[in-house]
């Protein structure tokens, strides 16, 4: 597609080491990156020249085997980053939020976007499994930044009588203000010692987590594996 070709031309120009190029190559690359720039708006051939096919000089330049493979990999990675950013709708969080009272709890659940998953841990200090679950959710929050992870002490919810020590830790999952899942005494689902990977696997069994986000594609280091 013409748009992709022209975008590649522009990226190729920006990636070139200007000092190492001859004047003729610099001019070719300049025209490749913006082929319509050197023509006036009144030129009747502007549209045709903009849509022209590449000359042999252009083709050979952007297909230089010795230098083009590295540039092509960088270009592919940049395209993947751009695509991922366009597809990553909604706010980002990345941390485990501490809710101070019942009002904040309601706001966290009811005032988020309908597409945002909200996971709330009801806990108390000194209850077995609560600390481990908080640590696990902190790790998952950094991995799943589009999910809102929260924690609140049972005594701060305004409904402490409903969250006795026997049902803690409790994990509530909401979306669009609606309760999707309610896991009481969730630590019983795991071994005595459990970690983020265990909680992640458990939530994935119920389809409560989105697909893991693409890792950072870095600065184009060609030693990194390609993302297909």
From TrEMBL:
Annotated ranges, domain Phosducin: 1-219
Transmembrane regions listed in the UniProt entry: none
One Pfam family linked to the record: Phosducin
Organism domain of life: Eukaryota
Alphabetized UniProt keyword annotations: Cell projection, Cilium, Cytoplasm, Nucleus, Phosphoprotein, Sensory transduction, Vision
Coiled-coil ranges (or none): none
Similarity-based family: Belongs to the phosducin family.
Protein name: Phosducin
């Amino acid at each position: 597609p013409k748009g992709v070709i022209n975008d590649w031309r522009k990226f190729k120009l920006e990636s070139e080491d200007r000092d190492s190029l001859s004047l003729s190559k610099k001019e070719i690359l300049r025209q490749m990156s913006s082929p319509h720039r050197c023509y006036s708006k009144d030129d009747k051939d502007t549209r045709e020249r903009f849509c022209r096919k590449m000359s042999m000089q252009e083709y050979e330049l952007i297909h230089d085997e010795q230098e083009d493979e590295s540039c092509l990999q960088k270009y592919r990675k940049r395209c993947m980053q751009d695509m991922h950013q366009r597809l990553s709708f909604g706010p980002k969080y990345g941390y485990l939020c501490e809710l101070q009272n019942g009002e904040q709890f309601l706001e966290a659940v009811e005032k988020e976007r309908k597409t945002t998953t909200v996971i709330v841990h009801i806990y108390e200090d000194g209850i077995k499994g609560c600390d481990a679950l908080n640590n696990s959710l902190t790790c998952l929050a950094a991995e799943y930044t589009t999910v809102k992870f929260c924690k609140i002490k049972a005594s701060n919810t305004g409904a402490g009588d409903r969250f006795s020590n026997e049902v803690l830790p409790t994990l509530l999952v909401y979306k669009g203000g609606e309760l999707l899942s309610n896991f009481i005494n969730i630590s019983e689902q795991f071994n005595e010692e459990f970690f983020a990977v265990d909680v992640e696997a458990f939530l994935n069994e119920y389809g409560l987590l989105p697909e893991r986000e693409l890792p950072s594609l870095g600065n184009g280091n060609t030693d990194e594996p390609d993302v297909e």
